[in-house]
Automatic annotation (TrEMBL):
Gene3D superfamilies: Nucleotide-binding domain of ferredoxin-NADP reductase (FNR) module, Translation factors. Signal peptide: none annotated. PROSITE patterns: FAD_FR (PS51384). Residues 1-125 form the FAD-binding FR-type domain. InterPro entries: FAD-bd_FR_type, FNR_nucleotide-bd, Riboflavin_synthase-like_b-brl, SIP_FAD-bd, SIP_fam, SIP_rossman_dom. It holds the Pfam family FAD_binding_9. One of its GO terms (molecular function) is oxidoreductase activity. This is Siderophore-interacting protein.
Amino acid sequence: MSYLLKVVEASTHSDAFRRIVFTGKGIGPLLKASDGDAYVKLFFFPEGVKPPQDGDMKTLQKSLAPKERPQSRSYTIAAVNKKDKTLTIDFTRHSNGGVGSAWAETAAPGSWVYAFGPRGKYSPDPKADAIIVLADTPGIPAARRVIERAKHPKRLRVIFDTTLSHEELDLPEKVGSVTLIDSGRGKTSLRDEVGRLKLPKGDVEVFARGEKYVTKKLLGQYFRELGLPSKRVSISGYWSAPKNDKKR
């Protein structure tokens, strides 16, 4: 089902994220999203294309010429306020632009966007003996949502590849361990840091979100070599680094 989301608040949350608060008619299902990585798909129309605000997204797409059709991107639902009937999304601020990032930079109260959802693929298992949460900066909103919904935060082992500080991340207390690295400085990588992690005995889950080559190729292969069941490893590539395109 498609929804028309209207911006009620927009702010620069940090150097890394632009925080947008939305509301909209009939968005109850979005506010009830329960998956640990619940997300919506947003649709961004080309500049100059002004579709009606009372249509259905699927119908609109069929009625538009190819060059007028929107590009879609998926975003984690960072927070909801059922009383105010709002939902919050943190948009990564990409230095090289990106259709969603560019839209968020100029979004202001009154701006609007179509959405599909909610969808989700993963929720932290309360029975797991340990959950390893891995992400680079674009993957942090999804990782944060998982962390906030873990019933046993002390069982979490979190590693983020980011320039953000512990204070800027402001993660929930009682998380088992949080390690921050910055691979941009060339001293280590997310894959290297995971290799140093001593996996606890028992049932281990993995949640990884980030650059496609790093998550799907390097991390995916590593966890397969460790013998972790595929159903206990949730990996998704959010973006592609040009330097890694030929490595796939």
